[in-house]
Amino acid sequence: MELSSTNNPQVKFWQKLKLKKYRDEEKLFLVEDEHLVNEALKKGIVKEIITITHEKFQEPTYYVNEKIMKLLSSQVTGAKIIAVCHMLDEKEILGNVIVLDRLQDPGNLGTIIRSAVAFNFDSIILSDDSVDLYNPKVIRSSEGMIFHINVIRTNITTFLNNLSNEYTKITTSVIDGEDIKNIKFNKCALIIGNEGEGVSKKVATLCEKKAYIKMNKNCESLNAGVSASILMYEVNHG
Amino acid sequence: MELSSTNNPQVKFWQKLKLKKYRDEEKLFLVEDEHLVNEALKKGIVKEIITITHEKFQEPTYYVNEKIMKLLSSQVTGAKIIAVCHMLDEKEILGNVIVLDRLQDPGNLGTIIRSAVAFNFDSIILSDDSVDLYNPKVIRSSEGMIFHINVIRTNITTFLNNLSNEYTKITTSVIDGEDIKNIKFNKCALIIGNEGEGVSKKVATLCEKKAYIKMNKNCESLNAGVSASILMYEVNHG
After folding, report:
1. ipTM for the complex?
2. Distances in Å between the alpha carbon of B28 and those of B4, B17, B20, B104?
């Protein structure tokens, strides 16, 4: 189908999906650029394709002009292709999980998703006041790894309270933590805090262990994506 | 001194420092926000202060209005204080160094600066076609650590060719690298490549060793800031 007017109701509908509120209402989100759209197609979550190219796709395809594309894309330069996707299902957790307490930066979340897949973590538990999983910057910085891991958005206090006792709950501390290599566990739930404030006190009290990453005293803390990645790297190699 | 017009030549001069070209010409750069301005003051590189507050500072201080501040700040919301700073001196290298080959993302550079300080690296060697060290996003994401490490911007091929043979030059490879823990060296130069393309062939041929970070095959690569940080973490703990 060809669409040429930016006032078309279908275009208006897609445009709304740039906002979290409407994504949550419609249970849909947008994925931009060929590489990521291909990952979404492989995952089988694509509802329809929007493109300025003349290629054919199995899914319903809407052929639009550059003006419409720029309206829908999160990138200044626009995109060639966008897939409208159904939100990912939340699955039961099985292995090691990383719990993110009020993470705010979309780039950090994308980076953590990428590292979690790399280091064989089973699931990411995102606090309900964290950045939106379907923020375009999260999807882009995850480099498609968002389609390879289970992500659950929930109240993390409730989650941690109900977590099976197979799991050791580990938070981070720059003051009195122990080396992650020395912490023994069957399965772990690693808790990473907000970029500025760290893990909230309420959440920290639910944890059995504190891990630290040894560093020069001139440096107060690492980037949240980096410290999460180093801890997951150590857990995977332990 | 009080300034109220956005057309004031002094304001125009500062505004130009938002561009790399003029920063390089004037050997000056801007540092925003109290925490980072304090770090710059401690470092002794502040030429003058620009502020919308009424505080007194040792350095010449220009009191401006919010309109001028918004013009000078890189942040949408503006800043309360900006320091005009002399560029940092490049010092001789002593210990382990990390070499960045065409790194493009300012957030990644800031993150790597932060991790380099944390893991006791001596210097960062930035290829002359990498993102500018004095980009406001680099300074902000370094969390002030930019003032705690030696950074040299240069032609990295020449740098690596002239490097003392005390140094083992290590690049990264996801295919045929060896575990960084098994690589023996006196001092190391770790080479990290561009976000999309990795290390250039020309630079890779200058390296004696290839290191890899073991990861799940679903994940092609890690974020550049994360892989640099994990390698520096391992070198520091080795």
Report:
1. 0.93
2. 23, 7, 10, 21
pLDDT in tens, B179-189: 888 999 999 99
- Report yes or no: B213 and B227 within 8 Å, Cβ to Cβ: yes
- Measured between CB atoms, which of B111, B216, B233 is closest to A223? B111
Q: What is the mean pLDDT of chain A?
A: 94
> CB distance B111–A221 less than 8 Å?
no
B110 contacts in A (CB within 8 Å)? 223
Do B81 and B66 touch, CB atoms closer than 8 A? no
pLDDT higher than threshold 90 for residue A177? no
Chain A closest-CA separation from residue B89 CA (Å): 19
A9-86: which CATH architecture?
2-Layer Sandwich (3.30)
Backbone angles phi, psi at A139, to 5 degrees: -60, -45
What is the reported pLDDT for A57? 86
Whether residue B157 contacts residue B183, with contact meaning beta carbons closer than 8 Å, is answered with: no
> Tokens 């690596």 label which residue?
B160
Q: Which of A214, A190, A212, A213 is nearest to A203 (CA)?
A: A190
Q: Which residue among B119, B219, B237 sits closest to A118, beta carbon to beta carbon? A: B219
pLDDT tens string A75-118 = 988 899 999 999 999 999 999 999 999 999 999 999 999 999 99
The domain ranges of chain B are 9-86, 97-237
B19 contacts: CB under 8 Å, gap ≥ 6: none
- Partner A contacted by B225 (CB < 8 A): yes
**Class in CATH terms, A97-237:** alpha beta
B222 is written with which tokens?
């890690």
